[in-house]
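request received
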Amino acid sequence: MIPFPRYLKLSALLASGLILCAHGAETPQHIDVKQLSKKVEDVVVPLPNEVFGALNKLGSINWKEYVRSDKGSNFTERPRIALLLGTVIADGFIAVQAEDAPAVKEIGQRVQTLARGIGVERSITQHAKAITEAADKRKWENVRQELDRTQNSVQQAMNEVHDEKLSQLVSLGGWLRGTEVLTAVVTKHFSTEGAELLHQPDLLVYFQTRLQAMPEFDLAIIRDIRGALVEVKPLIDVGRAHISSESVKKINDITTRLDNGIVTRE
Amino acid sequence: MRAFVKALLRGSFSIAILLALRLTVFASVDDAQSFALQAAEPYIKEGFQVREDYWGGDLGSGEKKAVRQQLFKGNEYWFWMGTEVERARISVHIYDSEGKLAEQPDGWEKGHFAAAHIIPKSTGSYFIIVNIEESPEERTHWALVYGFR
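response:
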């Protein structure tokens, strides 16, 4: 005979199991995407380490080759600083992949300097400190979390003062640098699985739409990026087909050119 | 002059009410986010990195919302939804770009929380559908966070 408290526990387990099954059964197996698309929220831009993590699972990568921690140019134009900030945060994720503590710390300081340039330094001071501390202790997961918090805090601070467009440029800078490194790795060791990670057509459209809404940022680099995204779109928007090694190489050439434009003074 | 002062006062009062309402909305979405993060907490120990960024808003009872997210094959994702409303029943499900249910069968719904799990079969855009199944409130705040490993 089952003791009463145990009987109660079993009943509760059974009931919750039934509830879970019931929800599973109610869940439609298909939805009409066309009907939904009108209500769809904006795409959330993945962090560079999301794609790096997936790439890592395809084989070992010498991340040290891609680490960059030089101070680079200083800019006064806020859109340029925002793009560079996104790029430098992406460099932080690369340095974490390489487990390069000195580079991580230098990048942390660079992020702080750039944030100062657009008046959002206060929002990230504690994160910059946490990045340095975690890098010293080689706690790489903590560094990743703090880099994410840094980007989020910078963007929130921008949004609070209605600088949403600058916030979008931070995401764009990070995405471009992430794509540059992704394509460099896949070009070196081509695989269809690696190339598939470039299948991001909605993200590309998202950035195109955002850039179209920034006519006030009449800078050469912004114009270059606009043009480049038009070139990249057919290379990654291939439906069910595979992305070829030639396309990967082409995207790497384009994103490397753009990255040079972002980090160096014209 | 008196009429002008009255109109000004009335206007300021309306703005103050609107601002207060706006602050309440933000506070409640923040509360919903706290619940979503609470649901995510046990998964952090399993190696999931929870993103700082999140989606949020308010929906009526029976209303759904779709958010679109780029997912990468090779990663594993959990989406956690939260609400601060007591006795609300919420759900979250994941569909691929063609509208086919793409989640693992171990998603769950309990009280203030709901969660959905996916190991993407291909890299691309997915639809995350959040639903306020039932709620005692006219509008129910919700927040959605996600993590990956």
